[in-house]
Structure of Crp/Fnr family transcriptional regulator:
Amino acid sequence: MRSLNEMLMASAWARELSAEQFQQINEGIVVRTIPTGGFVCMKGEPVEYWMGVVDGLVKMASIWSTGKITSFTGLSAGGWFGEGSLLKNEPRKYDVIALRESRVAYMNRSTFQWLCDNSIHFNRFLITQLNERLGQFIAMMEHERLLDPDARLARCLASLFNPVLYPESNLELKISQEEIGLLAGISRQRVNQALRKLEEAGLLHIDYGSITILDLAGLRCFGE
């Protein structure tokens, strides 16, 4: 289990801070442990924090009053999220749910605003982050409309290795088939079929509780 300091030092924006700045932002962050199935944050609540996954795996989604869940994206260790909601200062538009027990860093609003006011590097990071997230969601909409379940699952897995959004990703992904299904919006049985097909194509290797990516570029274009 890694510390908050270790997570921050792996974040591109934090490495550029002075020792005094680093200490100030550290004091503005609390780390909470979220159980499997628990809410990291909820749609409709006031937005008071910028959040980062210290370790674990969470899902950005929207839960309707009918009980239907629409999944947007997975968020793995090292990923930060929620900056758009803070910048717009409006109620949160989505839920974030822990797919396994996860530790999440919550940076309070005043610390986030102080960073925006005092760090050019942090602002450049935010621009890059927002642009990357926009591209991710546009691609997700395209994949949902045009690709079959096998190809959608391939793109879902590939999205977890975005070097900008998830800089700490490595090619061995500790994830269950159930978790993949929750991320991709596909049944566990269908996930198993799709993974076998991707393994036969030489794109990944399946182990118990993990997947090793053999051809990331191939996953990103599978089904085209």
Q: What stands out?
A: The chain has a mean pLDDT of 89. The two ends are 39 Å apart (CA to CA). The first strand starts at residue 29 and ends at 34. The first helix runs from residue 4 to 9.
